[in-house]
Amino acid sequence: MRVEEAIGRQIARLRTERRLSLTELGEALGRYLDRPWSRQAVHQAERGRRSFTAAELTALALVLDTSVPVLFRAEDDGIELPGRAVSPEEYRGILLNRERDMPLDGVEELIIALHDIGEVLSRPALARLVRIARVADQVARP
């Protein structure tokens, strides 16, 4: 996947979570940029069919109430750069820190922990256990 596609997927995901239409996101971006994005421009961005300036990435992060590194998340896909493909591990590593021996700061540790918690909570077996625990609580109560 190209890096623009990874960013586009995050824009689409966050826009949907925030319940913004394509037009609403484009208009909100206009508060930070010279002019708003059209509905088509937002659609193109979400499909990974455009490059982004630093100002646009900053505006997107502000409007979508997130951080710039979150916009670059690519789940478990590798990233294709013009010169070569980057493995998912290598790509994730650059989003957190470049030095493997360098300790993570508190924010990076929290991001990793939250990602791991999200992965665990999304497992179907855990969801079944949560439902079982709820039923057991209801039965145990008088």
From TrEMBL:
Cross-referenced InterPro entries: Cro/C1-type_HTH, Lambda_DNA-bd_dom_sf
Domain HTH cro/C1-type as annotated: residue spans: 11-71
Gene3D superfamilies in UniProt: lambda repressor-like DNA-binding domains (1.10.260.40)
Top-level taxon of the source organism: Bacteria
PROSITE patterns: HTH_CROC1
Protein's name according to its UniProt entry: Helix-turn-helix domain-containing protein
Taxonomic lineage from the root: Bacteria, Bacillati, Actinomycetota, Actinomycetes, Streptosporangiales
